[in-house]
Design goal:
The protein is an all-alpha fold. It has 32 helices and no strands. The longest helix has 23 residues.
């Protein structure tokens, strides 16, 4: 309804000085919104208005034909499909629905011919194959109908000989097999052809042919039977659906909203239907998704993914970090074999300021589980680095092959951190050659990490400066100066970052104080702006496509850390210390704020 109201507003604005908007989109989408509410007469008018625009002509007439079929006006439906095909002759959906309409009008030979034409162009079109079977059966061509039926059965995945023990695909086979059949059933249901929709799904749900265990098949079949007046059959299939395995049972078609709500009207205590409805609604109506998931939980649902999804929703939608952590802890308790749950729980723990010792202990207790998941294992290594256990962290990174999926390269950041901080320990102990070896390793991109050197040079600026300090401490001033020169001119991102400090420090070593002071001052002002903008941030967001986003407190901690580096460059150590302390108060897990603060304390800074 809200969407329809917005489309009405858009139409009112675009037609204020004109009889029609510049294109048919507002009316077309208004028709979809009205149809979703069951307001078919109003939707009919909106779609008709959209037909005047060439861009929406074919789609609008197709929608009109579906509505015609819903009220059994197949003659008008045929006319509207002809009009739709006039501007989109290659629409197989319109052609196959036309074949179905011809069949409803008793014109079986024409229906068969049209279905065959579509199959000649699209041999994998399951809807056309089903219509070919119905048309042949309708005109009494039993041999041809039998052949078409066998072709439908041949679409079962078992006929393709999939490797049933090949993980993870063997677990997804019911989902993979169901989708083409559900798509056809959805097309039939859109035109009110409930019996045909049920018949298509029966190919997968009849025990005779080997029952598919994908739960949405049975929810949809129950819904179609309910529309046909078969209350007993509907209840039976809704009950079967609620008992099916949930793995890969993720609904994504908006048409399934009505299916699940109908199942819940019949049985409000169906926790599975609440769970699936929440999954379907979350992207578009997250508040309603939370309500559905909470209803499932109140019914005693212990499914780990339910609690994981609630954790995601609590932190993204309601900014409820404690609630998210509690939910994710329930998810982990429900399935200690899923490494991703440990990864996501640690993200939440980090945002919530949970002590690194506690986080590391949990991951190490489940080391064998998380070892199979790069992201989760990377968290364990990151925490080992944070706890100063550099040898263990580096050993893991040297001996494990990390698979890099799109956008993820955080393991190399930890690799550099571990080597730089271990080098600092060696330097403080006077082991200069060991420190130099670690600094040089930090410049490398080991093949087993699957992270290539970035175009912007990564952290070369930082590493060259610290390597220069090591050579200077070892008494090799000439090499040190060369390395400071590399640090000052190293490729790097132009955006403000901690690299400003190392580049500025290199300028200082090269007696270019003006350039250094400019960088340090920029760090202080940029860090302060980061604190202000993060403090005004309205939300927490985690589990983004390319990794986790930072919470406002973590972003503010970064801002204070950058200010601390700026003050450190200015040799204002008291202010630098205050900034690092503030950063750690907001994010106790801030690795480099702690490292800089420790170094200040060792140097005797107040």
């Amino acid at each position: 309804k809200t969407a329809a109201d917005h489309f009405q507003t858009a139409i009112a604005r675009t037609t204020k000085n004109y009889t029609s908007p510049r294109d048919g989109e507002p009316h077309y989408y208004l028709g979809l919104a009205l149809r979703q509410q069951g307001l078919h007469e109003a939707a009919y008018d909106a779609f008709y208005k959209a037909t005047w625009s060439h861009a929406t002509h074919a789609a609008a007439y197709y929608q009109l034909a579906q509505l015609d079929c819903l009220r059994d006006d197949f003659t008008t439906a045929l006319d509207h499909l002809d009009r739709s095909l006039a501007t989109n002759a290659w629409s197989t959906n319109a052609s196959v629905l036309r074949a179905a309409v011809l069949r409803q009008l008793g014109r079986f030979a024409e229906a068969e011919q049209l279905a065959a034409v579509v199959l000649a162009e699209e041999p994998l079109d399951l809807w056309a194959q089903h219509e070919l079977y119905l048309a042949r059966a309708g005109r009494g061509a039993q041999r041809g109908a039998s052949a078409a039926w066998d072709a439908l059965l041949a679409r079962r995945l078992g006929h393709f000989g999939p490797q049933t023990d090949a993980k993870p695909w063997h677990q997804a086979l019911p989902w993979l097999e169901a989708q083409p059949f559900l798509e056809v059933a959805t097309d039939y249901s859109g035109a009110g052809l409930w019996q045909e929709a049920a018949d298509v799904l029966s190919i997968l749900t009849d025990a005779e042919h080997g029952r598919n265990t994908y739960p949405l098949l049975y929810y949809c079949l129950g819904y179609f039977l309910e529309q046909l007046g078969d209350a007993q059959g509907a209840a039976l299939n809704y009950r079967r659906a609620s008992q099916m395995p949930r793995e890969y049972g993720f609904p994504f078609r908006l048409e399934t909203i009505d299916v699940l709500r109908s199942a819940l009207e019949l049985n409000p205590r169906d926790a599975s239907a609440h769970y699936y409805l929440g999954n379907l609604l979350f992207d578009l109506q997250p508040e309603q998704a939370i309500d559905a998931w909470e209803r499932a939980r109140a019914l005693g649902d212990r499914h780990p993914t339910l609690h994981r999804n609630l954790a995601l929703a609590y932190v993204q939608v309601e900014n409820d970090l404690p609630g998210a952590i509690a939910s994710m802890e329930q998810a982990v308790a429900g399935d200690v074999t899923d490494p991703r749950l440990f990864y996501e729980l640690d993200l939440l723990y980090e945002a919530g300021g949970v002590a690194a010792e506690q986080r590391l202990a949990l991951l190490q207790e489940n080391h064998e589980t998380i070892l199979s998941h790069n992201d989760a294992f990377s968290r364990e290594i990151m925490l080992l680095t944070q706890m100063g256990r550099y040898d263990e962290a580096i050993e893991f990174m040297n001996t494990h092959h990390f698979r890099r999926w799109e956008g993820l390269g955080n393991i190399h950041t930890t690799y550099v951190d571990a080597h730089l901080l271990r080098a600092r320990q060696h330097l403080e102990a006077g082991h200069y050659s060991d420190a130099i070896r670690d600094y040089q390793a930090a410049l490398e991109y080991p093949a087993n990490l699957e992270v290539a050197e970035p175009h912007g040079g990564g952290r070369e600026c930082q590493v060259y400066y610290l390597l220069g300090e090591a050579y200077e401490a070892a008494g090799d001033a000439e090499t040190a100066r060369e390395l400071y020169g590399r640090a000052a001119t190293a490729r790097r991102s132009p955006a403000h970052s901690a690299l400003d400090y190392y580049q500025g420090a290199a300028y200082q070593k090269l007696s270019q104080d003006a350039l250094a002071q400019e960088l340090f001052a920029g760090l202080i002002s940029y860090g302060a702006e980061r604190v202000r903008s993060a403090g005004a941030g309205p939300s927490l967001e985690f589990f983004a496509k390319f990794g986790s986003r930072r919470s406002p407190s973590e972003q503010m901690a970064d801002g204070y850390y950058l200010q601390g580096l700026g003050y450190l460059g200015h040799a204002e150590r008291v202010q630098a210390r205050e900034m690092f302390v503030e950063a750690l108060s907001l994010n106790p897990n801030h690795l480099w704020a702690r490292a800089e603060l420790d170094q200040l304390r060792q140097a005797g800074a107040p």
